[in-house]
Amino acid sequence: MLSKNQSKLLRALAQKKYRKQHQQYLVQGEKNILELLDAGLKVVHLFATTEFLSAHSAKLAGVTCTETDSDSLSKVSTLVSNNAAIAIVPFPESAEVDTSGIVLALDGVSDPGNLGTIIRLADWYGLNQVVVSEDCADHLNPKVISATMGSFVRIDVVRCDLPEFLASYSGDIYGAYLDGENVHGTAFCARGVLVMGSESHGIREPVGQYINTPITIPAFGVAESLNVAMATGIILDNMKRQN
Amino acid sequence: MLSKNQSKLLRALAQKKYRKQHQQYLVQGEKNILELLDAGLKVVHLFATTEFLSAHSAKLAGVTCTETDSDSLSKVSTLVSNNAAIAIVPFPESAEVDTSGIVLALDGVSDPGNLGTIIRLADWYGLNQVVVSEDCADHLNPKVISATMGSFVRIDVVRCDLPEFLASYSGDIYGAYLDGENVHGTAFCARGVLVMGSESHGIREPVGQYINTPITIPAFGVAESLNVAMATGIILDNMKRQN
């Protein structure tokens, strides 16, 4: 059973302020927790149903577990569909930007679902990191973790002063605009930065000044724009098909 | 002001049963309603704030409008962010499948957000239709309309018995699988059907038997899958770059 203090902590960790204070975050739902266990990442405490614990006992050696009914899990969960398991996990160690290959950098992407989807995409296209500006959504937000579909265990999110990073980078810096070079014709380097802006503000000027190759997904119809996660997926596909 | 009956009707139209009964659906939010007005589609009744009505008066000639405060609009709206305007719109006329170019067909895509995003993609890539199996999400669901970002005014959704349609189709039928031909190397015809299955069930056998070219987006990393809307976008980009 969940104690009062445990319920309180689980509820608190849905908020950024308390995640920062405890240096811990939540991983929820069967798929994400199995990825966490398979990756061998440290788990502070796992709360799960009898069914979950018995189905996955082989993966739980050394993990502090508390058996909990699904109603109690639903009550402390921030996600509608989660009632099998919740884990408390320590903050990941901070990473440096790896500039050896393609660097995916996000400028002001504040929607958690989009950030999570982009982390999943990075994992599909073989990147190890996503670089985010200070004001992007918190990547340890439960909605982000959920949308990554497990990819959060493999992708480091590096939060930094994006203009400062770009100023120090030497190499091609591609940026997604509505009037850049057609990505179907762009000769992409195997090493370079791809900058994506938010759907509402695009790439902002402090970042935009460093873009040396503005690129665009060609439209064949009338829709004005694509969602930032969708655009990121299509551009990464265009970059990786060449490299 | 909204009358009691108007509130009741607006709330009812959030449900499929009442949309069918009234042969009407809802369009909500500034962007979608402006697209509706610009497209010259018939509007039965528009409920909007003073600000919306005065800002867009030029587009409202001949439209039955009721001035409403934003609180009342929020109360009858099914969308969190909508408080500027709601329109009641008659059902679109039913369309036949146009087999002259690329036909995008969805098998069991039940998530409204995914369906809406795919309608927006179809509009970006210059298709005029999306063909959906009987059990796909209702395309007049408010969440679908919202996710289309206005593209619902240009894209016909044709609901049909998908196996029956495919049985009658002559030409290439591409289907997205996890182990098909690499889309980066596929020579796509300018005419053909692209079938996408749902994230949870993939393409089901009654439909799968008609696929003559199974295709796959190559993974460069570890993520197991992509969301169906994302995969649709990346595959359409691969098809349209050639045609």
From TrEMBL, chains A, B:
InterPro entries documented for this protein: Alpha/beta_knot_MTases, MRM3-like_sub_bind, Ribosomal_eL30-like_sf, rRNA_Methyltransferase, SpoU_MeTrfase, tRNA_m1G_MTases_N
Q: Which UniProt keywords apply?
A: Methyltransferase, Transferase
Which superkingdom heads the taxonomic lineage of this protein's source?
Bacteria
Q: Which GO terms describe its biological process?
A: methylation; RNA processing
From the record, what ranges are coiled-coil? Answer: none
Does Lyase show up as a keyword for this record? no
Report the leader peptide range.
none
Q: Where do the tRNA/rRNA methyltransferase SpoU type domain residues begin and end?
A: 102-236
Tell me which residues make up the MRM3-like substrate binding domain.
7-81
GO terms for MF: RNA binding; RNA methyltransferase activity
Family matches, as SUPFAM superfamilies? alpha/beta knot, L30e-like
Looking at the keywords, is Methyltransferase present? yes
Q: What does the similarity note say?
A: Belongs to the class IV-like SAM-binding methyltransferase superfamily. RNA methyltransferase TrmH family.
Protein name as catalogued: RNA methyltransferase
